[in-house]
Design brief:
The complex is a heterodimer of chains A (244) and B (324). With 244 residues, chain A is α/β, with parallel strands linked by helices. Chain A has a single domain, classed as Rossmann fold (3-Layer(aba) Sandwich), CATH 3.40.50.880. Helices cover 27% and strands 25% of the residues of chain A. Chain A contains eight helices and twelve strands. Chain B is α/β, with parallel strands linked by helices and 324 residues long. Chain B is built from twelve helices and twelve strands. An eight-stranded parallel β-sheet of chain B has the order 9-8-7-6-5-4-3-10. Chain B is globular, with a radius of gyration of 19 Å. The chains are: A alpha/beta (244), B alpha/beta (324). At the A-B interface, helix 3 and strand 7 of A face strand 2, helix 1 and helix 11 of B. Strand 7 of chain A pairs antiparallel with strand 2 of chain B, so a sheet runs across the interface.
Chain lengths: 244, 324
């Protein structure tokens, strides 16, 4: 069964992620509405502008449903803007975030666009080959809470972090031909998807296929169940997480 | 400031330059002339702002020579917002572009809205670290700009007109030419490249990928939420709004525009915010007419800018014919 994974499509480099996910056999679709969000088992928030997307999440009533899904264990990956959206807070700015990941990020930390760069990165969890890091007006992680694993750094700052079912990268694997991080993320979905193997017969269907939202009701029941939580997904250590 | 390599980090690469445009997709880039307008644009959800000395509608009215913005003003706009700041340079004016790069703007628009500095050549954009966006009326023009190093293309439309017809014409021209190339047998591509006035390698790439190798936005004439939805459905990957927002929010007394103490046209920030948000919302949900209705209703009676019937203009008054 191909895992059904969504890419938040309010704004940003959506099709780039969808293309990589499909090349790995995932049933990838764009997520713009509540019904589309309810129909996916994992979500990528792509690169884009965080001030724009945070406003649109609120405007179209997606902030709270998204937060609830992630707190119930749905795998989440934010690339660049997505990591800012997921952060606890943003250094030096009064910017609202969803607070899914116990980190403080600094926006445009490496500088403005003229500092945007391609950098080979060491990411031990992906093996010994360096990963092609594409950093575009990229943030870094300035503070990370005790439950946060740092999986890669650049210039002494974390640029790839994970806290249970939530991961964030400062860079853009979707702009490269290296699919290892997308495969890593899909690996986080597999245990989460167990227990709802039936009902998703259109796993190879196109984006926005009429059948996509139909399984949402049944799935919602599974999301918070002990089975899906205990089936291998590492729970986030939320106890030490400050709440804004 | 030049492209460089430091500790294995390579700046100014094609991926880094085209990549920023990819991050702007699905969004609205708004022309602003003051830091206050930039703040309104950011609050409304603009993915970037474009700094220029006058919005195109005012350039059109004022006549004369339109140049790169006052750099201290661009700096203040950069200090005001966290979204990317773009700024316009005149066609062929590579020294203006060098200044904007040295200042640290995030994108340069080599723009026909300003008075061209060179009537033959565009800027050689490839050596710059900062990426460029350029206007195009058809596929040949788009590919020539990409060959010069443009990392993003916008259909030209007719800036400052409040009339969407040219934007539609240019977007359809680009889209139809791409479809035609994609269907052409490979032996025809050399002749097609000659007809398009574009490098063969780019023509082959477009035929293969059925798309430009860079992001394609729409510009020139977008002045309502429905205009934005129209252009997105015609294949634009995002929207530039030049005069459409702040002209709709302009303050008039007795039919004449009012100016502030710095000589900038006065705008009502509340109307501008509402208007800007409506265009962002319609761009996001362009395929959902109900969402465009909601966006339009949220204007609360604010009226779009005055539009010009382009048939009433002569060739000299058209901005889109500048540069080829």
């Amino acid at each position: 069964m191909a895992p059904r994974v969504g890419v938040l499509a309010l704004q940003g480099d959506v099709v780039e992620h969808v293309r990589v996910l499909r090349s790995l056999g995932a049933d990838a679709s764009a997520v713009k509405t509540r019904a589309e969000l309810d129909a996916v088992r994992g979500l990528i928030v792509p690169g884009g502008e965080s001030t724009t997307v945070i406003r649109l999440l609120d405007r179209f009533g997606l902030s709270e449903p998204l937060r609830t899904r992630v707190e119930c264990g749905m795998p989440f990956w934010g690339t660049c803007m997505g990591m800012i959206v997921a952060a606890h807070d943003v250094a030096g700015l009064e910017q609202k975030t969803l607070d899914l990941l116990d980190v403080t990020v600094r926006r445009n930390a490496f500088g403005r666009q003229i500092a945007s760069a391609e950098v080979p990165l060491a990411i031990p969890v992906l093996g010994t080959d360096p990963f092609p890091g594409v950093f575009i007006r990229a943030p870094w992680v300035e503070r990370s809470g005790p439950g946060v694993e740092v999986l890669a750094t650049l210039a002494g700052h974390p640029v790839f972090v994970r806290q249970g079912n939530v991961m964030g990268t400062s860079f853009h694997p979707e702009l490269t031909n290296d699919v290892r991080l997308h495969a890593y993320f899909l690996g986080m979905l597999l245990p989460y998807g167990e227990g709802e193997a039936s009902g998703a017969g259109d796993a190879t269907g196109p984006v926005g296929a009429p059948g996509v939202a139909s399984g949402a009701g049944g799935m919602a029941g599974d999301i918070g169940s002990p089975d899906s939580r205990d089936s291998g997904v590492i729970p986030r250590s939320s106890g030490s997480r400050p709440r804004s | 400031m030049a492209k460089g390599q430091q500790n294995g980090a390579q700046t100014g690469t094609i991926t880094a330059k085209r990549g920023l445009a990819q991050m702007l997709k699905g969004g609205v880039i708004m022309d602003v002339v003051t830091p206050e307008q930039a703040a309104v644009a950011e609050k409304a959800g603009a993915v970037a702002v474009m700094a220029l000395e006058r919005i195109p509608a005012d350039i059109r009215t004022a006549g004369g020579v339109a140049r790169m913005s006052d750099l201290s003003l661009v700096q203040r706009i950069m200090d005001t917002v966290t979204v990317p700041v773009m700024a316009k340079a005149r066609i062929g004016h590579f020294a203006e572009a060098q200044c904007l790069q040295a200042l640290g703007v995030d994108y340069i628009d080599e723009s026909e809205v300003l008075t061209p500095a060179d009537d033959k050549y565009h800027i050689d954009k490839e050596p710059f670290t900062v990426p460029f966006v350029c206007g195009a009326r058809d596929l040949g023009e788009a590919l020539r700009r990409i060959a010069e190093g443009a990392a993003m293309i916008r259909s030209k439309g007719e800036a400052g007109s409040g009339n969407i017809v040219e934007a539609v014409r240019h977007m359809r021209a680009i889209r139809d030419a791409i479809a035609e190339l994609a269907g052409a047998p490979s032996e025809e591509l050399i002749a097609r490249a000659r007809e398009l006035g574009a490098p063969l390698e780019l023509v082959r790439a477009v035929a293969r990928e059925r798309a430009l190798p860079v992001v394609l936005f729409c510009a020139g004439g977008v002045s309502t939420p429905a205009d934005a939805a129209l252009m997105m459905q015609l294949g634009a990957e995002g929207i530039f709004v030049g005069s459409g927002i702040f002209k709709a929010a302009a303050v008039y007394s007795n039919g004449a525009p009012e100016y502030d103490q710095n000589g900038f046209p006065k705008v009502d920030p509340e109307i501008a915010l509402r208007y800007a948000r409506a265009i962002v919302d319609a761009t996001t949900h362009f395929e959902d007419p109900q969402a465009v209705v909601e966006a339009s209703k949220s204007l609360g009676g604010a009226r779009p800018m005055y539009g010009i019937d382009l048939r009433a203009l002569d060739e000299k008054q058209l901005l889109s014919v500048r540069g080829n």
